[in-house]
Write a structure and sequence with these properties.
Layout: H1 7-40, E1 43-44, E2 51-55, E3 61-71, E4 77-86, E5 91-100, E6 112-114, E7 123-124, E8 128-130, E9 141-149, E10 155-166, E11 169-175, E12 178-182
Parallel strand pairs: 2-12
Antiparallel strand pairs: 1-3, 3-6, 3-9, 4-8, 4-10, 5-7, 5-9, 10-11, 10-12
Length: 196
Amino acid sequence: MSDTVRAPDRVLLTLAVAVAFIVTTTTTAYFIRRDAASHRNSLNTGVYESAVGLGVDVGQVMTYGDIIMTNDGRDPIVIQGAELLTNDAGAVVEDVRLLDVDAVPPGTLKGEAFGYEPPVEANGIPGATMLPSRPDHRKHYQLIFAVRVKSAGPTLFHSVRIRFTIEGKRYMKYAYYQLRICTPKGIDCHAPQRKN
């Protein structure tokens, strides 16, 4: 028997290898894209994005904790950063924490408050981890910001940017929670109007 391959058989063999390579590459690329999209969508920042206004004195610190999130994926999410975004310079974020809502008694979460006393169970960012929800229990996490008012006049935080990793891969998500701070404390400070 001869070990040589006839020309037509060689063409068929080359064609079969090429088709197998294309199918494998396409399938692999599909699953990589699908997993990346799945990971990016694992961080759920809620359906209702609030818009609030609050009068605060210059120099005072306030708590902002309206952002409640869930991990709808199957892998832990590590929060690397969370920023309230603004074009104004009248107030700054001094601290950000992540709280597992299950760690505190029901009814003790604060959306907005004067002063800043995060629960001892709240973890500093970066590095705070959100575990995935289970079918029998949806886990919720609260972002808690300490915001200091630096100068008189209104400040509008128009959105939040959250940077996170899943299995070492970096992602970023924006949510359109809005906070308007007016001075002084007690002033009528209307919530920002949403644009449709």
